[in-house]
Amino acid sequence: MENIIILGTGCAGFTAGIYTARANLKPLILEGDQPGGQLTTTSEVENFPGFPEGVDGFMLMDSLRKQAIRFDARVESAYVDRVEFSEERKVLHVGEKQYEAKAVIIATGAAPRLLGVPGEKEMFGGKGVTTCATCDGAFYRDMDVIVVGGGDSACEEALFLTRFCSKVTLIHRRDELRASRIMAERVLANDKIKPVWDSAVEEVLADDNGKARAVKVRNRKTEGVGEIPCKGV
Question: Could you say which of 136, 155, 165, 230 is catalytic?
């Protein structure tokens, strides 16, 4: 039986691993299908303490992993599909295998949220719909793309895409960005980014090859509907 099992290998998971390992609890850290968490897909992290010039997300998570392992934390790849927490002995099931622990720290983080509109799932992954600009941005070099959202994540993705794309249309449901002030100012000052306010994507439209060609957008104030051509969303 393990003293403690930590679920997740993002910032929270590895931080928990470092602290519990230094307390000689010999933690076992289980990483799921995205080792290092969402920060591994972030080109530059500016709000992590100790890095005045910012730090690459993948490098940051790699450093946290090495630091946890240095203190004898163990890391295994395992996707937990069922747990039993009703008794003092905690049981985690990974297919036919099971882990037992005295305590469990859940640090599973977040996952990208899809829009839930027609055409999105059909074109997800290689056909024009993606949730990771850092992963897929280079595939859209010299093309027009759409980013949906108005928070820090959407703004960061839009700014990153300007390195490759001809134009980035940022579609947001409100009439102003809800991102942090510095991020919003960067987006609005970038000539390659065109905001479309008070609007929501209703459908991702495909071309004859089943790849994204445009999005159908509805203005939430006027109820007007139109299409915005694009190669990626």
Answer: 136
Last residue of a domain, one of 37, 71, 106: 106
121 belongs to a structural domain: no
Total domain count for the chain? Answer: 2
Residue 207: active-site member: no
- Among candidate residues 67, 90, 106, the one where a domain is terminated: 106
Q: What pTM value is reported for the model? A: 0.68
Query: What is the distance between the alpha carbons of residues 23 and 20, in angstroms, rounded to a whole number?
Result: 5
pLDDT in tens, 40-52: 876 677 778 888 8
Q: Annotated catalytic residue: which of 132, 144, 152, 198?
A: 132
- The per-residue pLDDT for range 196-231, each reduced to its tens digit, is 999 999 999 999 999 999 999 999 999 999 999 999
Active site residue 175: no
For CA atoms 122, 128, 133, 139, give the dihedral sign: positive
Is residue 36 very low, low, confident or very high in pLDDT (cuts 50, 70, 90)? confident
How far is the CA of 183 from the CAs of 74, 141, 153, 196, 197, in angstroms?
Answer: 37, 23, 10, 17, 17
Q: What is the mean pLDDT of residues 143-161?
A: 95
| 214 CA to centre of own chain | 23
Helix (H) or strand (E) holding 213: strand 212-219
